[in-house]
Design goal:
By secondary structure, this protein is of the alpha+beta class. It has one domain: Threonyl-tRNA Synthetase, Chain A, domain 2, CATH 3.30.980. Helices cover about 25% and strands about 30% of the residues. The chain is elongated and about 45 Å long.
């Protein structure tokens, strides 16, 4: 098993507007992308558990042409809210880094 951090060329997060965060998981090789995709490890349930959001609020899109997976979730607080700890949403990918891929 390998961690997602070791398999992905890019593993990052950013704002998708003030109310959502999106995660980009990009791979150098189609073979690696297919391995992760076919493992079924990146699910709405996993993201829901990692980020404490309802499963029905999780969007996962596979972009075969770009060897990428995009995940979008609602933010707990709007970007710039007094309680927001990451205004750009760029530090939210850490929980995904250690996900183990068979």
């Amino acid at each position: 098993m390998d961690s997602l951090m070791n398999l992905a060329k890019v593993l990052g997060s950013k704002n998708a507007g003030p109310f959502y965060i999106t995660f980009d998981i990009m791979f150098d090789e189609e073979k690696t992308f297919q391995r992760v995709k076919e493992s079924g490890i990146i699910t709405r349930k996993l993201i829901s558990e990692l980020y404490h959001v309802a499963e029905e609020e999780v969007s996962i899109i596979d972009y075969d042409a770009a060897n990428s997976i995009k995940v979008t979730i609602p933010r707990k607080y709007a970007s710039g809210d007094l309680h927001d700890s990451d205004i750009y949403g760029c530090q939210q990918h850490a929980p995904l880094a250690n996900v183990q891929v068979p």
